[in-house]
Amino acid sequence: MERYTLGTDQALPDYLGDLPGDPTLLGTYEEPNIEQILSLEPDLIIATDAQEGIHDQLESIADTIVLDRMEDWKTVQLKMGELLGQQEQAQKIVDDYNEKVSGLKEELAKTVVERQWLSFVHETI
Question: According to its UniProt record, which protein family does this protein belong to (predicted)?
Fold first, then answer.
């Protein structure tokens, strides 16, 4: 499966630098390359509300799902699992993450000493 993504300033964000398969850049997040997307003849386009201005163009190319860019990553993970028919794998990723966070919280609770804080607030009338 080939990978395609949008970048920033005509480059992939640093956190995507280690993706396998050298993904093809389809323009920037702010300005996707509509012609390049059209040439791929996609079955499905997954966009965010950041691309609201070109939603009609994307919809004319293929079915388009628009995600809320401020949505929690776990919710997006589960939606992607549903779209790809991989609900169990998506749920496992979320469950593994939650388990790891829970374990870390327990470890931190053992090392953090409860402290009391005192704040002074000065208000001028």
Answer: Belongs to the bacterial solute-binding protein 8 family.
Q: What are phi and psi of 110, to 5 degrees?
A: -75, -30
Residue ranges of the chain that CATH labels 3.40.50.1980:
1-70
Residues 6+ apart with CB under 8 A from 62: 41, 42, 43, 44, 45
- Distance from C-alpha of 111 to C-alpha of 84, rounded to nearest angstrom: 42
Residue 44 bridge partners (DSSP): 63
- 107: number of CA atoms within 13 Å, CB side? 6
Query: Residues 49, 50, 54, 55: what is their CA dihedral angle, to the nearest 10 degrees?
Result: -10
> How many CA within 13 A on the CB side of residue 13?
8
Give per-residue pLDDT as tens, 46-96.
888 888 889 999 999 999 999 888 889 999 999 999 988 999 999 999 999
Confidence of residue 28 (pLDDT cuts 50, 70, 90): confident
Regarding the domain with residue range 1-70, which homologous superfamily does it belong to in the CATH classification?
A: Nitrogenase molybdenum iron protein domain (3.40.50.1980)
Whole-model pTM over 0.70? no
